[in-house]
Here is the input.
Amino acid sequence: MKDVALGIDIGGTNTKFGFVDREGNMYAETSVSTVETAPGDVEAYLKYVYEEVEKLRDTIDEKMNIVGCGIGAPNGNYFTGTIEYAPNLTFQGVVPILKIFQQYYDVPMVLTNDANAAAIGEMIYGGAKGMKNFVMITLGTGLGSGFVANGELIYGNDGFAGEMGHLMHRPGGRTCGLGRQGCLEAYVSATGIKRTVFKLLADMVDETPLRDVTYNNLSAAMITDLALKGDPVARAAFDYTAELLGRSLSDIVAIFSPEAIFLLGGLAKAGDTLFKPTKQYMEGHMFEIFKNKVPILSSALEGRNAAVLGSSALAWKEISPVIDVSAQP
Here is the structure.
C-alpha cells in the first residue's frame, strides 16, 4: 500500500486533483468542472468531488492510502479552513470547505489559496529546495503570490497576507475582478495583457493578426505565440506588462529581500520575452543595496500539474516531519 497525499486545486472553471507521494511522484490526476458541478451548492459539489476521487483511486493498480489532503483555492484561509468571498466561484460568502470535506476523509486536511500552495510546491518539489526566503508569483487569470520567509509561508494575522495582485498600481485605473480600480492584476495577468493589447491596438498603427481577433476570442496564449514570432503589438504588450511587474517586484525586494523570485503560469511561458525585460525594469527601479542580488526564475513545476503538486505539498508539509525544506538540493 502506497502512502499518498490527495492534492486538490479548486479553480473558477475546473477542479483538479491527484495522488502524490512525499517525493513528488504523481500516481494519477484528473479534473472536473467547477462551474457545471452543482453551481452554488458546495455540499453537492464536494460530494461529487469525493466520488470522482474514489473513481480515480480505483483505476490505480497499486492501492493508495490517503494520509493527508491539501486544497488550494481562491481566497482560501489557512487558519479557518474556509473560502471567503471568492469572486470567481459560484459559492457565495464564507464557505466551510474543510468542515464539509472532512466527513469523507478522516485525515489531516489543510487549505490555503492557490498561489500559497504553489509556493509550498516549489519549496518541496521545485527550484526553491534549500531556500528559506523566496517569492512565488502566479500569472494566470489573475496575479497570485506566495511569500516564504525563514522557511515558512507568510499568512499574516488573518490568513490572507501576500496579495500582491491587489497592490494599488494606478488609483482610478482598470477595474479588477473584485471591483477595485487600479489593482496590479488588472494589468499584469492573462486578463490584463488582453486589455493591454486592445489599448495598444487603438494607439498603434502596426499591422498585426491581433486586429482580426475579438476580445472574447483572444487569449494570453495567442499573444504569447505572436510575441515569440516578433509581432510588434504583442511584444509591446509584453514590454508594458514587464515594466509594471518589474517595478512592483523592486518594491517587493525592498520589503522582503528574497533569495529568488519564481514566476509560474501562462504568461511565464513566454520565457525571455517576459523574463528579460522584467529583470531589466526591476533592476532599474531597485534600491541600490539590493541591485543584482535577486534572480527571477522560471518555476521548476512548469510543465507538470503545478496546482495538484502544490496542494499535495501543502498536505505533506503539514503532516510529515520527514520533509526537511531546509535541505540543500
Observations:
- The chain has eight helices and 13 strands.
- The longest strand covers residues 2-10.
- The chain has a mean pLDDT of 92.
- The chain has two domains: 2-123+304-319, 130-298.
